[in-house]
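hey so u asked for the seq, here:
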Amino acid sequence: MVKTIIELRRLRKEYFNVVALADVDLSIPAGEIYGLIGPNGAGKTTLLRMLATTLEPTAGRVLLEGKDLWDDPPGVRSVIGFMPDFFQVYRDLTVREFLTFFALAHGLRGAKLAHRVTDVIGLIGLEEKADELCKGLSRGMVQRLGLGRAVLHNPRLLLLDEPASGLDPLARARLFAVLQRVRAEGATIIISSHILAELSGLCTSVGIMHQGVFLESGPTEEVIRRLLPRRKLQLRVLEGSQTPAANVLEKHENVSMIQTDTTWLRFEFDGTDETVSELLDQLIAAGVRVVLLQESASSLHEAYISIAERNHHAVHA
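ran it, structure tokens below
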């Protein structure tokens, strides 16, 4: 049985007359990389700050491994790492001095402190910068240093608010590689980001938020399939087979949105694997010389756009 690390029970946060989080119920299994997705104002940062015990809820409870966060906030913080969307480094300290300062704050001392700082410098890939001043680091290196600070005490839960904001593709890839290593060492990670392409490959589960509520939550592939149930198929045929192939597709009740070029036919399909197999039999029976029939995976970005548009139309209907 998979262990639940975080459970939200009717969690609510109000700022005067604005509801930032609206009575949310949610469970996140241990070992996940859980992505929070949504526009600005959806409640992502509010939720992360409450999980980090830097913001008290208006109502409801947050349970970490079955224990209420607000029964012992200092004790909870010893097993949580938090990297906010905006943070500062001490520019006139070296990378090693910066991490040593925060390791001391976490109670590390002596050989254990030195070993952990060295390990974290290796984890975030800053060995060559270890004894250089923080003010000389690039934006990507600063983000990795912030992540290093958040994992110094080996937290069981790591909370990251837009950690890849402003990074170029290479810097994002390096940052996400570090996150995979942190997860492999036993941490559960909750991350908010607008960069959906990277989240799709990084996150094992996602939650889509809008105006303080979760519209969807679950394993990434399951969420995509629920939001985009119609499969995207591509059919490649030999020259001369395009017309009979198009005729078969146009008559099939499960086929829609057909697009064609010289040798490829692309279409959406509402059916099971068995129905796809039946379609292939029909194509061959019609004399279509099939080279390849394959499915294109829908993206997290497409799924998010789909639910965002549906929600927009529902609100303005």
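The first helix runs from residue 44 to 51. The chain has a mean pLDDT of 90.
lmk if thats what u needed
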